[in-house]
Write a structure and sequence with these properties.
This protein is of the alpha+beta class. The protein has a single domain, classed as 2-Layer Sandwich (HIT family, subunit A). The protein is built from three helices and five strands, in the order αβββαβαβ. The longest helix is centred in the middle third of the chain and has 17 residues. Bound molecules: guanosine-5'-monophosphate and zinc ion.
Length: 113
């Protein structure tokens, strides 16, 4: 089954990769909705957070910690930023490979649309 983010992870399709380790890869969103818009994904294919279990506890924690570290590296920590995980139709998920959005460098509003 074709998955855009698996293809980005294996570099079958190009992206601007900003971080990578053995389990996680982070790259710029192709259609940014903020001046900084990065997606962090597990290299392993997981459809959505609905498909995670206790076995993924470490991976889920690492996704958030790497997002925090990226925010620090990009010097947006103090001003603030937003981490988002959209899930399924009502959550606005359009790519069915678990990902964390890191949005920064503009003031976000609440509630989100
Ligand atoms: P979702 O709507 O599922 O939460 O987020 C999916 C995100 O993936 C969107 O922000 C969209 O712009 C981004 N996206 C979709 N296709 C590609 C692609 O081929 N490359 C990159 N870098 N981002 C993509
Ligand atoms: Zn995938």
């Amino acid at each position: 089954m074709k998955c855009i983010f698996c293809e980005i992870s294996t570099r079958s399709i190009p992206s601007k990769i900003v971080f990578e380790n053995d389990k996680i890869i982070a790259f710029n969103d192709a259609h940014p909705v903020a001046p900084t818009h990065i997606l962090l994904i597990p290299k392993q294919h997981i459809d959505s957070i609905n498909n995670t279990t206790e076995e993924d506890q470490l991976l889920l924690g690492e996704l958030l910690l790497e997002a925090k570290k990226l925010a620090k590296k990009l010097e947006v920590s103090d001003a603030g930023y937003r981490l988002v995980i959209n899930t399924n139709e009502y959550g606005g998920q359009s790519v069915n490979h678990l990902h964390v959005h890191l949005l920064a460098n503009r003031k976000m509003t609440w509630p989100p649309g």
